Amino acid sequence: MGGAILAVLPFAPGLLLSPLPPVATSMLAMADDGRRRARLFTLYWWGGVLLASLAAGLALRLSTPGVRLADHADRLASMLLAVALVAVALVRGYGLVGCRYRSTWRSPTWLWRVGTLPTNRAGPFAVRVLCTDPLHLLILAAAAVALAATPGGWPAQLAAAALLALAGTLGVALPLIVSYVAGWSGSVRLHALRSTPIRAYHGVGFWLSVGYAAFLLT
Predict the structure, then answer these.
(1) How many CB atoms are closer than 10 A to CB 58?
(2) Please, are residues 114 and 27 in contact by the beta-carbon 8 Å criterion?
(3) DSSP 109
(4) pLDDT tens-digit readout, 86-97
(5) How far apart are CA 7 and CA 147, in angstroms?
(6) Terminal CA-CA length for the chain
(7) At what angle do helices 134-148 and 71-101 cross, to 10 degrees?
(8) Confidence band, pLDDT 50/70/90 cuts, at residue 99
(9) What is the CA 75 to chain-centroid distance, rounded?
(10) Domain residue spans in the chain?
(11) What confidence tens digit (pLDDT) does each residue in 160-199 have?
């Protein structure tokens, strides 16, 4: 079990440091019935990370005749993911340079509609945010490859995927935690800082992509 956990934990910071999902949680927490919406968003995010990494890892393992993904298949998958991450880094780098030369910055259009989401759509929207960002998908795919290449039964795989999901949800859950610990005033102060992670979107994505590409190639 320890091997599987150590294999996937390096990919948790990629989800933990993603700038926009915590902003979405903060905006949900400020809306009517905010804590319930934020809880649903956080829970679905955790479940999405868990199911995606676990299902993909088990599928890769079952696709090979051995008890784990073969070394050559592991290396090939890691190399392909690294190439894809370099492509994402180029896109984010272009966006970062563009932001520096523009007098105004732009944020995704979906971000400002989060606060108006019905309560029953807050959870599914978290899955959408998770699955529509290429960097999220590549990190989950890399974690799945790491799971498939590590010996161990499905309980170890499940425990590792659950821990990855928990660590990768801490950033998303931060505004919800603040709302419980510091109350409404804490949520307001945190919400006022939302422009900082939005502005950091391209920069954080660039460095995460470069870092994980280098990690997969080592």
Answers:
(1) 17
(2) yes
(3) G
(4) 999 999 888 777
(5) 7
(6) 23
(7) 160
(8) low
(9) 23
(10) 2-217
(11) 999 999 999 999 999 888 888 887 777 777 777 777 888 8
Distance CA 204, CA 197 (A): 9
Which of 23-27, 63-67, 96-100, 162-166 is least confident?
A: 96-100
Extract the tokens encoding 47.
Answer: 């479940």
Q: Given this model, what pLDDT does residue 29 score?
A: 84
CA angle 206, 212, 216 (to 5 degrees): 145
Contact 172, 42 (CB under 8 A): yes
Q: Is the pTM of this model over 0.85?
A: yes
Output DSSP code: residue 19.
S
For 51, 90, 134, 182, the CA distances from 81, given in Å and listed in that order, are 20, 14, 11, 41
Q: Tell me what pLDDT residue 151 has.
A: 82
Q: How many residues does the chain have?
A: 218
**Contact residues for 126 (Cβ-Cβ < 8 A; gap 6+):** 21, 24, 40, 41, 42, 44, 45, 48, 172
How far, in Å, CA of 15 to CA of 8, rounded?
Answer: 12
Q: Could you tell me if 44 and 131 are in contact, meaning their C-beta atoms sit under 8 angstroms apart? A: no
Decide: 123 and 19 in contact? Cβ < 8 Å: no
Listed residue (106, 89, 111) closest to 205, CA to CA: 89
Give the separation between CA 117 and CA 29, rounded to whole angstroms: 12
Name the amino acid, one letter, at 104: T
